[in-house]
Amino acid sequence: MEALDKSKLLRHTTREIKERAALTVNPAKTCQPIGAMYAALGIHGCLPHSHGSQGCCAYHRSTLTRHYKEPVMAATSSFTEGASVFGGQANLIQAIDNIFTVYNPDIIAVHTTCLSETIGDDIPQIISKAEEEGKIPKGKKVIHANTPSYVGSHVTGFSNMTKAMVDYFAQSTGNTKDQINIIPGWVEPSDMEEIKRLAGIMGIRTVMFPDTSGILNGPQTGRFHMYPRGGVTIEGLKSTGDSMGTIALGQTASSAAAHALDTRYKVPFDLLDLPIGLLATDRFVDALRRMTGASVPESIEIERGQLLDIITDMHQYFYNKKVGLVGDPDQLISLSEFLVSIDMWPVHIVTGSPGKAFEKKIGEITSGSPYKVNVRAAGDMFMFHQWIKNDPVDLIIGNTYVKYIARDEDIPFVRHGFPILDRIGHSYFPTVGYKGGMRLLEKILNALMDRQDRDADAKNIELIM
Amino acid sequence: MNNMETIGLLKERERQVYLKGEQPFEMDCEKKSLAGAVSQRACVFCGSRVVLYPIADALHLVHGPIGCAAYTWDIRGALSSGPQLHRLSFSTDLKETDIIYGGEKKLYSALSELIDLYSPHAAFVYSTCIVGIIGDDVEAVCKRVSEEKGIPVLPVHSEGFKGTKKDGYRAACQALFKLTGRVDTQGINKHSINILGEFNIGGEAWIIKDYYERMGVQVVSVMTGDGRVREIEKAHGASLNVVQCSGSMTYLAKLMEERYGIPWIRVSYFGIEDVSSALYDVAGQFSDEPAIMEKTRELVKDEVSRIYPQIREYRKDLAGKKAALYVGGAFKAFSLIKALRHLGMNVILAGSQTGTKEDYEVLRELCDEGTVILDDANPIELSKYVIEKDADLFIGGVKERPIAYKLGIGFCDHNHERKIPLAGFIGMLNFAKEVHETVMSPVWRFTPRRAVGVINE
Prior knowledge:
The complex is a heterodimer. By secondary structure, chain A is an alpha/beta fold.
């Protein structure tokens, strides 16, 4: 065994890589229910409900709170031993009754947990029973998504709850509406806002779902609002079946709901990458244009030109830089493309979410790379760290947990993704769209240059860089 | 609750909310949360995990799907002066096939692999909800690995649904208890203690340990802050167990009393009064050695005179300000109420997640007329009362912070996310400083509740 360097927190990470079959160390994912909870928060007047033990709900609320720095409301079935033997029906019916009585949401969005999935609770049947027993007041709605924690990842849970919005609400009147659906995927509330803004200045009417802007990046009002102003409305969700089309952003998080709308109501969709970076944003704006016939206003062209200008100004600092990436599949695909387009090369790319398609896609994006590329779906951060030990990089982009690796290996680090537990502001500034691209580039270059300044001795420190 | 009906309280919750001055008072606590409640409480696993996690040279393996390991990965600033193994996250990451065919094989190979790699002094295996349902024989796997590897491998029966967080503490205590009594106790003198229920958040255990050492009292083990397996293994050699944090470790103290005849006392290290009486109480247990009490008096005098002048300064600004507190264990609430009183502040709301009937009785006696006392509160109740009572400060944990901030109220984390030590005398000073900083911050001028004519609603 190598000697332990006591200045390193992750001193226990070995350089030698051994395949592990039974074990995840330092996960690059978490479980489905938290994704379902985040998605459900993007419906106006909705209280997410965790059908499982009390701890699940507490952990999800705490993690979402730590990331978004906002109150996160959700209820739980508070499973006990009895429920685990006889099923959770009684708990859920009582919960529905209590929630409507006390918290008075418009919608309860139930997601399951490993516990309730394994004991086999049939949620639709329980919801019908609650309905029969008169526990669901008129005009109120209970929806559900199955989110077994032992399948997929938090992104799967997000996708499942997003699809449930279609399953429960979408209708078709036969008359196509002058609007499109946008499924934004698991991005920050600020990103959802930015995506709506871009469509808005093109004069396009959109229904975005889920939409956590205004909910998890709200203003300080001096009041506690159980149901803040934002979120997609029930009316909005109902109308998705009448929209001209759907733009779904991100294969993992958004394609299921888009497919459901297409299959059921013949709403055609464009499945795009998340609009992170110049090319992906171009494709997004182009899709908006093609789907609606709207023209791209000059203001958007100016934003694009500004991003391009920043890229030009900065490109000399990016030549052939090696980058390590950890995050969710949809983010990493767009980030990789963006980096490659500005002459930076992702060399170690890890997501905790399973899916071989991800590895293939990253392989395509990095096919021209001058470096050897390691990519892994269903990987973990221990593996990522080992790769870095064997082949160091110039920059790491990932969530807060990557901090320890960046510190131990002394590598510049840009926070991106979920969760970010140690910085504030990410939920207010987008990284999507042209403006988001500019912000991302500023962060990347700052990280690289701060490092150069830190390492320069007195004689070499430069005023003008 | 006749004068508090502007928000709906669940009928069943009426007896978990009390306004001091109203009669009769009998808190209906220690209940399971109602299904459908937006409770701030957690589960059995959470209880076990927070108690055991600070043991830094042990392996902590979470047996279940990934979530439970992910959410408890390094969440509590429990510092270690040596190994950092506890700050990594290990999970068997159970998948669908494991749910069908069982996870024992996976557990066995994960354990074996990790023990070979890290040579920990002990391993804890946490059972999560699903393990209780699919029926893995965790006990048998642990036993087998323990025999093969020659270290204690302890199953922690922490299936989330099998009770409350308190049951998790209990499961953790059972695992700890199995570690004790394993090595001989040579070198332990008769004026010796174990510190129980102290988790070294922000380095608090180091402060407390230093006090005891200055008093001439030997600290055999800290459970579990900056904890080491070897120390816990000889904990049965101590003469006294000093238990802080009412909920989590009393059960272990009782087990050790039964098995080893070690007496125990309950203390708190928060606030001048409580930390002083903690030290005096311990010294009082060693009355055969008068020097200990002598040194304790000196220590308390030194420490108090060092911090008091500064505390008086803070008090000038804080006198008359109003505080709300909502904490895990009620015992902490007692200390906080006294500490806040030292700062001249009034407590207008006090609540806990896990208080007992006796706890609430004490709380009632400590509180002023008109104080709202709550058990297992939800965010609506909390926000309603702090606004009604016009609080200047909220003391709570992670889920309360953004609520306080939304309302435009200063906040102090007295839970896992505190970054500076709040225990001991220096901790009281830190606490006063933090409370002063947040309460007196100029930013609250801008909050709508206080703002003078910026933008009218």
